[in-house]
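so i finally got all the pieces together for this one. its two components total, 524 residues if u count the protein bits. some of the lines might not be protein, just check the labels. i wanna see the whole assembly predicted at once instead of chain by chain like last time, that was a mess tbh
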Amino acid sequence: MSAARADPAARAIVVGRAGALAEPVALEDGEHDDAIFLGVQEGGAPLFAVEREGVELKGLRDLAVSLPAAQLGAVAYASGVANWARATRFCGICGTATRAGEGGHVRICENGHHHHPRTDPVVIMLVGDGDRVLMGRQASWPAGRYSALAGFVEPGEPLEAAVAREIAEESGIRVRDVRYVASQPWPFPVSLMLGFHATYESGEPHALDGELEDVRWFTRDEVTTAASGDDTWIDGPDVDGLLLPPATAIARLLIDRWLAEG
Amino acid sequence: MSAARADPAARAIVVGRAGALAEPVALEDGEHDDAIFLGVQEGGAPLFAVEREGVELKGLRDLAVSLPAAQLGAVAYASGVANWARATRFCGICGTATRAGEGGHVRICENGHHHHPRTDPVVIMLVGDGDRVLMGRQASWPAGRYSALAGFVEPGEPLEAAVAREIAEESGIRVRDVRYVASQPWPFPVSLMLGFHATYESGEPHALDGELEDVRWFTRDEVTTAASGDDTWIDGPDVDGLLLPPATAIARLLIDRWLAEG
């Protein structure tokens, strides 16, 4: 680990509360001890995550629509571990300060309690009912944008139960036949998105719990039209129609799979 | 919440570091404020989790083989939330003490930082190669016991990548075609087991990373014979043959599904 830190070929992804820099940079003097080891790049150069004062970072949601998938994955990983380290400066068990171990992947307090990175499982799900799908929108989103419903998994809850509960809480809809589709890490702050399809059973959609501004059905035609457009949820055109999540989001994968299975 | 706590019909699952009591008990004086609200039982009585001094608890692994699934689920949930609360007495961001909010499902520090229950995603996977499956054993397990390989998901990692990485790290085997099967919460301390099947691609099994004592192939015949036996991983007979995980474990579901799909 000392050798990796001292390697002049070492690069670091700069991360912080506000986002990250897309391009890795050389480590500066004094940064080597606190850099979090992320792995070895092609060609053998070690890659780290560092926080750096006075650097203007780009928001991760902006990076999510502009970076290639592999680079976005590295930035997401760097941000995830750094977010966790920032939230684990003290021990939750005894309140004493923690220090980094194992290249920054464990934090250890003065009483020897070990803390490992936290990853919060989030279910995200598209409810289908033949030729229509259920989607919702948050008030803060651009006009026209709708996406799959989502929510954190609670302790003691199987994924399939979390899917059904979140849909019921957010929309009043009951579902059956919950099917896993794919997963995707998402660094807000350190989430693991678990994508599902579910089949409509009963109920009428209403935005129930205050998280969503609206939740409603969209027809296959509406979704097909929106999917063929040059849409993005950031800096997108102020359209009248439906604006889908970008290609890098797992919500879009769920939508595209549903269209393809139609 | 005050009404639920004061309800004379309220019951509580007693939990602690060492395990839990299988049967819910009445709340005692002074326990009402710290009791963690778990939900409302059939009949309308609220259910809580409490920690209580001087009570002899039964280990959760013992309870896992003796309790019906629904009751085990409630005990697992109670233990999971209580384990998280015990590990979140102080704020990881600023080190100040936390207090319970929202019925015990959030902990809030003096500076207003909110902490939500942590659930650690764990992948558990059975590698199949036609008529044989790969399983491993830890040194602490009863003689003859083998189970599916498992490991924590790392930050920034999709589930399917975690499955392939853990198998490679623990056994040296490379896999393809990783398929989600089912999930199960597991309160050690607060895990969510995510069960997968994977298909063998290359390599010879070796216990590589020190976590496992042995990792090897078992034939369909060996597994079928073991599955038909009255086996259990606790207080099981000291058998010569293969001892499979109990019916309540997701590892056993993965094994039974593999046998059924044969």
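The two ends of chain B are 51 Å apart (CA to CA).
Helices of chain B lie at 2-6, 60-66, 69-86, 159-171, 220-228, 250-261.
anyway lmk what u think
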